[in-house]
Write a structure and sequence with these properties.
Blueprint lengths: L8 H11 L3 H4 L9 E4 L7 E2 L1 H7 L4 H10 L7 H5 L4 H11 L4 H9 L5 E2 L4 H10 L3 E6 L3 H6 L12 E4 H4 L6 H10 L7 E5 L2 H9 L3 E4 L3 H12 L1
Parallel strand pairs: 1-4, 1-6, 4-5, 6-7
Antiparallel strand pairs: 2-3
Helix pairs in contact: 6-7
């Protein structure tokens, strides 16, 4: 699926939902105590393949670490997820972090396909949760660039009932305002939700709002923890 700069993959799916008459289904409540499961995407539903990605770009050893810390591990990486600056402006911030490797940073940033990778276990997991009668949402720090260039990693998105990408609302986890936007958009009762994320810092605001949380450490562990909560 090809996306332009102003369109996210979820925007496209949202139009599909409305046109196919499934809007009523996505707002359906169940009689279960937990009626909504909220998933993080990066590190939970997609694999983070950063070092494999750098190796494919030809970067190994010290150079790979320098590129990593000038870009993905820098404080500036979140600007992609916030979507308040242009991609060229963000690229310049990366270059300023390590000007001696400007060419390598430009080469890395030119095409980020493979920086996140499809995860085969995600679709059957989502289908099992859906079969239990729960609504499935996402809350994810994600950029338009990664959406465009790694669209294959989000193959499972049509199985979900909605959610929020940070780049669409200019807020990121762990900002509580991001979580509150999701609650307001889908009229959620926090006491009837569970949120799964791979970073403890991202779970704290959810818990403060009354949402049950699961720290994703492995696929088996997270599925078992969710099964225990859902009953």
């Amino acid at each position: 699926m090809q996306l332009d700069e102003s369109q996210s993959l979820y925007d496209t799916f949202d139009l599909y939902i409305m046109k196919s008459g499934l809007e009523e289904k996505r707002n359906m409540k169940t009689n279960h105590e937990i009626d909504t499961v909220i998933f993080d995407i990066g590190g939970v539903l997609v694999d983070l393949g950063r070092f494999r990605f750098l190796e494919k770009k030809g970067f190994t050893g010290d150079l790979a670490h320098r590129v990593m810390y000038a870009t993905m591990r820098s404080e500036d990486w979140v600007q992609l997820d916030l979507n308040n600056l242009s991609e060229e402006e963000i690229l310049q911030l990366f270059i300023e972090n390590d000007p001696q490797i400007e060419d390598q940073i430009r080469h890395m940033f030119a095409d980020v396909h493979g920086i996140v990778e499809p995860k085969a276990a995600s679709l059957p997991w989502l289908q099992r949760v859906r079969d239990s009668g729960r609504r499935i949402l996402f809350l994810s720090n994600y950029s338009h660039k990664i959406m465009r260039e790694c669209a294959d990693a989000l193959y499972f998105l049509p199985e979900m009932d909605g959610g929020l990408f940070s780049c669409d609302v200019h807020k990121v986890k762990p900002d509580p305002a991001f979580y509150k936007l999701l609650i307001e958009k889908y009229d959620l009762d926090p006491a009837r939700c569970v949120f799964i994320d791979d970073l403890p810092a991202n779970l704290e605001p959810a818990a403060d709002l009354g949402i049950r949380t699961i720290l994703f450490q492995s696929q088996d562990q997270a599925e078992q923890d969710l099964d225990r909560i859902l009953g």
